[in-house]
Write a structure and sequence with these properties.
Shape: globular
Largest sheet: 11 strands, mixed
Number of helices: 23
Distance between the termini: 100 Å
Number of strands: 28
Length: about 950
């Protein structure tokens, strides 16, 4: 093997070099992404934070469920207050305010069909660390926020115990290391029931000290915490952690309503503060369940997750609290100033504005096509000129004169079809890929819709392998008779040009229609494809090998400076001669010398039949430009979205949306290799085919849940005090709820089970049945009832409803051993309301009752068994009667209060569900109250 032959084997655009380099690139991207996506271990030196104390605090805060309407919530509050007092008692510049005076009313759910209002009384724990810079002691401060309440079915280790203990660590840190700006800590209560603690904080005077915030939250149950969203670019400048994890696409999902849940971030943003939302987002199957606990995180996951939140909070807080130059605060406002941001492998944060992205898009949309059209034109002219000088067209014309009409017509049709295929096969491959991905999505949605819940990686592998197969096989067809891709460099240029058209069209759409920061990868993809196409055009201008197929090369080889070397027949092995029946083979022999024959013989060395034609070097530069960056950017998005969405189907998310997103991401990851796919080795294609078949079959047939990734079912119970009827309700997927879960419960034996579509969770089913006497819940007794006998069920809820005008009424309600009651209205809605004792403040600023009125008023008291007195004005005609229901709710049950504050609260039906659920399922709350009891009214 000569030197050039050896060099071609390694560096030419041929099957083995191309396959190896593309495999290495994808393997490097995927493996690096997987490695850097792991939780960091807790270091020996924790940057001045007391990690061990924080971990001990977490054991106290997340020992058991502690919702707002529970006495264990009071125990957790007392622990936090004692810790804050102990930390701050030695520092004069630190103040503590146990806020028992603020209260607030506001309207919510205004865009829904069921608008409601909330009245809430504060018991937030507030800490203020006064800044050392006098200019920023009373204004321009930083707010750090987390909530200590959990839901009734979860201890709340990540939601939001880790956020709370992180703030306790930060209180000590800033007390010892005084910041230049004042820092206010809002360790609040009632977030799970409607962001109540954040709302009522808006009534406290310390809110006026702050203009920037960092909110710590748990929107799932573990993994790496993510910078969920930001109000603007300025506070984002503080996000300089050693392991940043952030992407603007999650903020876009919130802004477009794709993510329906909320955090305290939205309250602070509505109040005009600038800031960040830092939250856990993985493990939705364990979120709001008993597995959101320290024991529920195996190994060191709880420690590592806690440290990830502490490290990110410390880094951002230090910059926000010591920024006196305004770098994290001052900026222009408007849509164009919205930030675009993402991290790369947890090593670096990329940040710029949406306006910058828009400007780059406009430049690419206008300048790119002009440059590319000019280069394509010049490349074509140079190639045509080269063919003329080589005698190519004379060879074609000479051959045409010796061929019959039918032969020429057949050749022309074949040429037209081949040209059409070359210039359309990218789009055909794209359509085939989209079509097969749609079939894959339908297959998952119909056959095993919940399998991504447990096997997200296998579903992604299935979609990726299908995207690879449809792209490569369509673009590789047809090969030559020797299994070699004809004119690979020309095909590469053709696919690059068509891929550029695709990315250009996508860029037009994202620039003029969508205008979201999360489309930054389209901009990057268009830019690198443009650069790759420019390089391919330049390559064509240089006459690189691989731009002509074997027939074109043969014709050119038969002319040397105008001398035609004809093929003459021999009687050796060959094809059948049509005239004499002898076999012959055409070989090239020199004609008799003439006056135009060159003095020195010029014999081009013939190309062996079937040899690959790729050029050396050029393709490597093009591949390194075109493939890695889009694959990296889209793969980062894929990891975030797949693990944020894979367990949301049990919340009512459509399977078509989830699997469709995975398939779209898979196509976007694979499409960048399309210009080079014609040289992928058939053995690799066979391996990918095998991977696709095995992964798809397994995920179509596998059981979708496990103890590690359980199915969530939603529990609620209602007591009608008019009839003493107790109804239990479970919500979950119809494929499992009525057939594999409810038949396990003794209370449902021989009962009539009524299953309907869930009103608040699309795609799920709610099944109800009447519970027997042994499953009647009990609200227990508050501290005011200790030593007394059992309380009659008639006294669970005490009400008084009187007309105070032609279209107004006064409603009084008091519940036994509870801090929560609700007024529900049917028919006539409420256009205004007022609570006795709220100081006459009315609704919170920026909150208005919708024109059609309110359907519900939710009442929350800091004290147990408070009597709420509410004056309401009804909308509608004055003569019409108002109807509704007055109820109170409870959230305490025996197994949840073990080791805590026992008041005798019991929910036997919930205990039954906890006991008899299969190991692959887990229960969570359906609403704030695990059970409610109430009376119907008409006034």
């Amino acid at each position: 093997m000569g030197f050039l032959s050896g060099l071609s084997a390694v560096l030419a655009f041929r099957t083995i070099p191309t396959t190896v380099l593309i495999t290495v690139i994808y393997a490097a991207v995927f493996s690096t992404l997987l490695v850097t996506d792991q939780l960091p271990s807790v270091p020996k030196h924790t940057q001045g934070l007391d990690f061990q104390q924080a971990y001990r605090d977490l054991h106290e805060v997340a020992a058991r469920p502690h919702p707002f309407n529970s006495h264990d919530n009071v125990l957790v509050r007392s622990y936090i207050l004692s810790r804050v007092t102990d930390i701050t008692s030695s520092y004069d510049h630190v103040s503590v305010d146990f806020d028992l005076s603020s209260n607030a009313s506001w309207a919510s759910g205004l865009l829904s069909t069921n608008p409601y209002a909330v009245y809430y009384e504060s018991d937030n724990i507030l800490v203020k660390v006064e800044g050392s810079d006098k200019e920023y002691q009373e204004s321009g401060g930083l707010l750090l926020s987390a909530h200590w309440d959990s839901v009734s079915t979860a201890p709340g280790a990540t939601d939001d115990g880790m956020g709370v203990v992180t703030l306790l660590s930060m209180v000590r840190y800033f007390a010892e290391n005084r910041p230049r700006r004042t820092v206010v800590f809002n360790i609040n209560n009632g977030e799970e029931d409607g962001l109540n603690g954040a709302h009522v904080f808006m009534e406290h005077p310390w809110v006026n000290v702050t203009d920037t915030f960092l909110n710590l939250e748990g929107a799932a149950a573990g993994g790496r915490p993510l910078l969920f969203r930001t109000t603007s670019r300025a506070p984002l400048a503080s996000w300089s952690t050693s392991r940043p994890h952030a992407n603007v696409i999650t903020g876009d999902a919130f802004s477009r309503g794709v993510i329906r849940s909320g955090t305290d971030f939205s309250v602070y943003e509505q109040a005009g503060l600038e800031g960040l939302d830092f939250a856990f987002y993985r493990g939705r199957s364990r979120y709001h369940t008993k597995y959101d606990s320290i024991p529920g995180m195996t190994g060191d996951k709880s420690k590592n997750a806690l440290w990830a939140m502490m490290e990110g909070t410390l880094s951002s807080s230090l910059m926000l609290a010591n920024d006196v130059k305004g770098k994290t605060r001052n900026e222009s406002v408007g849509q164009g100033s919205q930030p675009v941001y993402f991290d790369l492998f947890g090593a670096i944060m990329i940040m710029f504005t949406l306006q910058t992205l828009w400007i780059v898009n406009i430049i690419l949309l206008t300048v790119g096509p002009v440059i590319l059209l000019m280069l394509v034109y010049f490349e074509h002219i140079i190639r045509v000129t080269s063919r003329i000088r080589s005698g190519y067209y004379r060879a074609v014309n000479g051959d045409a004169h010796r061929e019959s009409f039918m032969t020429r017509a057949s050749a022309e049709i074949k040429h037209v079809l081949k040209s059409f295929w070359v210039w359309s096969k990218f789009w055909i491959a794209l359509l085939v890929g989209v079509g097969f991905q749609m079939l894959l999505v339908v297959g998952y949605a119909k056959l095993n819709p919940f399998v991504i819940h447990t096997y997200p990686w296998l579903v992604l592998v299935s979609a990726l392998s299908l995207a690879y197969l449809t792209t490569v096989l369509a673009l590789t067809f047809p090969l030559t008779k020797n299994g070699v891709v004809p004119a690979p460099e020309q095909q590469k240029l053709s696919v690059l040009l068509h891929q550029y058209v695709l990315t250009w069209a996508l860029l037009v759409y994202t620039t003029s229609v969508v205008t979201l920061g999360g489309t930054y990868f389209i901009t990057a993809w268009n830019a690198v494809v443009l650069l790759g196409a420019v390089l391919a055009c330049v390559e064509g201008m240089t006459g690189a090998r691989g731009y002509e197929n074997e027939e074109e090369i043969e014709r050119q080889r038969r002319y040397v400076r105008g001398v035609h070397y004809d093929a003459v027949g021999t009687a050796e092995n060959g094809h059948q001669d049509s005239e004499n029946g002898h076999q012959r083979v055409d070989i090239i022999e020199d004609t008799e010398p003439t006056e135009i024959t060159p003095l020195i013989a010029q014999r081009g060395e013939p190309m062996p039949s079937g040899e690959e034609q790729g050029a050396i070097g050029w393709w490597i530069a093009q591949l390194l430009v075109v493939v890695p960056l889009p694959v990296i950017l889209v793969s980062h998005i894929a990891v975030i979205l797949v693990f944020a969405m894979n367990q949301t189907l049990t919340d009512g998310t459509s399977p078509f949306g989830v699997y469709g997103s995975v398939s779209m991401l898979a196509l976007l990851i694979v499409l960048p290799l399309a210009p080079f796919s014609m040289n992928m080795h058939r053995w690799l294609n066979s391996i990918i085919l095998l991977i696709f078949v095995l992964s798809t079959l397994y995920t179509y047939l596998a059981f979708p849940f496990s103890q590690e990734t359980p199915l969530k079912v939603y529990f609620a119970q209602t007591v009608d005090l008019d009839t003493s009827r107790v109804v239990t309700a479970l919500t979950g997927p119809r494929q499992f709820l009525s057939t594999a879960i409810i038949p396990r419960f003794p209370s449902a034996f021989d009962q009539s089970i009524n299953c309907t579509e869930a009103s608040d969770k699309p795609g799920l089913q709610t099944c109800k049945w009447e519970a027997g006497d042994e499953f009647v819940p009990s609200p227990g007794r508050s501290e005011y009832h200790y030593g007394q006998g059992a309380t009659s069920s008639m006294k669970w809820v005490t009400t008084s409803i009187k007309r105070t005008g032609s279209n107004s009424a006064r409603i009084k309600v008091q519940g036994l051993n509870t801090r929560s009651c609700t007024l529900q209205f049917s028919g006539k809605r409420v256009k205004s309301f007022h609570l006795s004792g709220d100081g006459g403040k009315g609704l919170q600023g920026g909150s208005e009752v919708p024109e059609d009125g309110l359907e519900q008023i939710r009442l929350w008291s800091r004290d147990w068994e408070k009597e709420f007195e509410v004056d309401v004005d009804f909308a509608g005609s004055e003569g019409e009667k108002a109807k509704g229901r007055v109820s109170c709710g409870w959230a305490e049950y025996e197994s949840a209060t073990a080791g805590g504050w026992r008041t005798g609260g019991k929910i036997p039906s919930l205990e039954e569900v906890l006991l008899f659920l299969p190991e692959w399922a887990v229960v969570t709350k359906s609403s704030a109250a695990l059970f409610d009891a109430g009376w119907e009214f008409e006034v």
